[in-house]
C-alpha cells in the first residue's frame, strides 16, 4: 500500500513536470528503461542501492549508462535517487502510466477467455467497450482453459465474470440468478 502511495506521489510530480515540458512519452520511456534495468540487472540494483556509495557516484554511473538521454530527464532520475526512492521505481512507472491513461481517457482492459480471440473478435470487443465506456481501450487478452467458456473482463478494479465456470459454480451452489 505504501509503495503505491509513494509511487503515486512521485508519478504525479514527474507527470506534471513532463507535461509542462511536452515530454510525457519521452519521460515514460526513460522511466521504463530505468525500471527494466533495475528489475533485470542484479549488479545495477546492488550498486544503486549500496548504502556506502555517494549519490554523486551513482549519478555519474546513470549519466554514463544513459548518455543519450537529455539532462532534464536525468534530473528526474537523480531526484528519485537522492530521495532514496529508486526501489519504488516499478510503482512510480505504473502510477505514471495510470495518470497518462486517466488524462487521455484510456482504459486498460484484461480479457480472459477459454480460447484465443481472433483479430475480428478483439476489434468487436474493443468497439463494444468503447461505445459503453466512452473511453479509448487498451486491450490485453489472456487464455485460461479452466474457465470453460464465456469470459472475464477486468477493467481497472472492476471484474465482470461471465465465465461458464462461474455459472456452473452458481448452479451448484443453488444461487443461479
Automatic annotation (TrEMBL):
GO terms for cellular component: plasma membrane; proton-transporting ATP synthase complex. Keywords: ATP synthesis, Cell membrane, CF(1), Hydrogen ion transport, Hydrolase, Ion transport, Membrane, Transport. Belongs to the ATPase delta chain family. F(1)F(0) ATP synthase produces ATP from ADP in the presence of a proton or sodium gradient. F-type ATPases consist of two structural domains, F(1) containing the extramembraneous catalytic core and F(0) containing the membrane proton channel, linked together by a central stalk and a peripheral stalk. During catalysis, ATP synthesis in the catalytic domain of F(1) is coupled via a rotary mechanism of the central stalk subunits to proton translocation. This protein is part of the stalk that links CF(0) to CF(1). It either transmits conformational changes from CF(0) to CF(1) or is implicated in proton conduction. It holds the Pfam family OSCP. It is found in: Cell membrane; Membrane. The gene is atpH. The keyword Glycosyltransferase does not apply. It is a peripheral membrane protein. GO terms for molecular function: hydrolase activity; proton-transporting ATP synthase activity, rotational mechanism. This is ATP synthase subunit delta.
